[in-house]
Amino acid sequence: MSARRALRALVALVLAVAAFAPASAATPRASFNDIEDEVMCVTCNVPLNIANSPQADDERKEIRRLIALGLTKQQVLDRLKSELGNEVLADPPTSGFNITTWLVPIGAVGGVGLLLALTLPRWRRRSGLPDQGPDAKVPELAPDDLRRLDDELGRAGI
Amino acid sequence: MKRSAVPSVALVVAAALVALLVYGVAVKGTDTTLDDAVAKGRLPQLPGATLAMPNIDGSGKTSVASFRGKIVVVNIWGSWCEPCAAEAPLLEREQAKLAADHAGTFLGVTKNDIPHESMAFAKKYGYTFPSVRDLDSKLYRKLGSTGVPETFVLDAKGRVVALRRGQIDEKFLQNAIAQARASST
Q1: Residue A126: its pLDDT value, please?
Q2: Could you report the predicted ipTM of this complex, rounded to two decimals?
Q3: β-strand partners of B106
Q4: Residue A46: in which H helix or E strand, if any?
Q5: Average pLDDT, integer, range B4-29
C-alpha cells in the first residue's frame, strides 16, 4: 500500500468516526421534572415543584425554553443561576453564611455522637448496671417464679 | 477528657449554636433602619448606592451612584408582579417629566426576574428609563426590602427623601419628587 493510499484510508476512517461521534457522545436530553425539584421559586422560597405563583410559572416556562434549546441539565441550572442568582438553586452554595447550613448539621451529629461515646460508658459504670453483652449472665429466677412460669407455659401448650 | 470537661464543652457548643442562630436572624431579618431615618427626616444616603448591577439588556453595569447630581427614583419591580404592572404607567409619566427638564431619572431594579421577561415588561409599558438586575438580592437586602414593588426617591445629593414599601400612587410620587427637587437645591 502506497503512502498516499494509506493517508486516504486514514482520512476516511477519521471522517467516518467523526460522523458517528455526535450520536454516540450526545448527552441525554435534560428532563423538566429532574430540574424542577432542584430549583427554587425565588419569590416564594419553596421548591419549584410545589410552588404556585406567577413567578414560578415564569421559571417553569424558562426551564422548558432552555430545554427546548437543547441544553443539558447542568447548562440549564447554570443559565438559571446567571439569570436569577444563587437563590434559584435548591442546594445552598457552600460559601459565606450559607456554609453553616452544611456544617451545623454535620457538626451537631458529630458532637452528639462524641458526647454519647464519652458519657454513656461513664453513666453505665456509675449506675452499676450489669454488662448486657452476648455473654452476659441472665439472673436466675426464684423457685416460685420458675414453677409459675412452667405452669403458664404448660397451659399455653409450649 | 476529664470528667468536668464534658458539660463545659456541651455548654460552649450550645452557646455557639445560639450565637449562630442570633447572627443568622440578624443578618436575614428585616432591617428598618432606612425607614426610621427617612421617617425622622434625617435624609440618609441610600445603602448600596455604589453597587454596580447588570443592565437588563446586557449592555454593562449601572449603579445608583452613577446618577449622582440628579434626582433618582429607584423602583424595585418584577415582570411577574401585578402591582408593578399597575404602577408602571405612572412611573413612565413621571419619568417623562423628569427627563424633560433634565432633573433626574427613574432607575428600575428587577427582583428575581428572568431578563427577557423583564425586557418584555419594559417594552410593554414603554419604559424609557434604565433597569438593572439585582442578582442575589444584594441591593434588596441592603435596602431592608420586604416585597415588590418598592420605591425610593433620592435627591441630587443621593439622599433618600421618601420611600414606599408597596405600590405607589400619583400623590406619593409627585410629593416625593417635589421634595427631592427642593432638597437638591
Answers
A1: 77
A2: 0.74
A3: B73
A4: strand A46-47
A5: 77
Parse chain A into domains and list their residue ranges.
28-91, 95-124
How far is residue B149's CA from residue B143's CA, in Å, rounded to a whole number? 13
Q: Determine whether the interchain pair B112/A42 forms a contact, defined as Cβ–Cβ distance below 8 Å.
A: yes
Residues 6+ apart with CB under 8 A from B74: B46, B64, B106, B107, B109, B151, B152, B153, B154
Instruction: Answer yes or no: do B80 and A43 touch at CB < 8 A.
Output: yes
| Cis peptide bond prior to B44, omega within 30° of 0 | no
Q: Do A97 and B1 touch (CB under 8 A)?
A: no
Q: How is residue A131 written as a grid cell?
A: 454488662
Joined grid coordinates for residue B83: 402591582
pTM: 0.70
DSSP label of A38: T
Number of separate helices (H) and strands (E) present in chain B: 6, 7
**Which residues, other chains included, contact B138 with Cβ-Cβ below 8 Å and sequence gap of 6+?**
B48, B51, B53
Query: Kindly report the CA angle at B179 between B175 and B183, in degrees rounded to 5?
Result: 175
| Cα A2 to Cα A10: distance, rounded to the nearest angstrom | 12
